[in-house]
Amino acid sequence: PQSELARQRRQKISEKTRCLQKLLPWDKKMDTATMLGEAYEYVRFLQAQVTALHSMPCQSSFGTTTAYGFQNDGRFVSGLGSLNRQQLLQVMLNSPVAQTMLYSRGLCVFSMEQLM
């Protein structure tokens, strides 16, 4: 009875750990403690990214800029320059490749206005 409950708890923890690992933007094997530490750091990165995006003006006062991005296979492409700021942000936020590259390099999206 007790061993059955303990086994069920372990299974549930294992299942939830696998679910959490699937949410992370990389696909590498790591032990549970490392994965939890990486998940914690990634959540902190996402919180900082959300804060930066919330404080970003919708329209730029610096005119148009050329935008570049990454395709799903990781290749660098240009041609996003015709997008407005909101559209470009949506592309970046919906791109796992872009999010992984930002996170792995310790970068965050911000606007020129936020630097002033």
Automatic annotation (TrEMBL):
GO molecular function annotations of the record: DNA binding; DNA-binding transcription factor activity; protein dimerization activity
The protein's UniProt keywords, in alphabetical order, are: DNA-binding, Nucleus, Transcription, Transcription regulation
PROSITE patterns, alphabetically?
Answer: BHLH
**Subcellular location, principal:** nucleus
- The answer to keyword ATP-binding applying to this record is no
GO cellular component terms given for this protein: nucleus
Q: Which InterPro entries match?
A: bHLH_dom, HLH_DNA-bd_sf, IND-like
Localisation per UniProt entry: Nucleus
Provide the BHLH domain boundaries. Answer: 1-46
Pfam families of this UniProt entry? HLH
- PANTHER family xrefs: BHLH DOMAIN-CONTAINING PROTEIN (PTHR45914:SF24), TRANSCRIPTION FACTOR HEC3-RELATED (PTHR45914)
Q: What is this protein called?
A: HLH domain-containing protein
Organism, by scientific name, is Cephalotus follicularis (Albany pitcher plant)
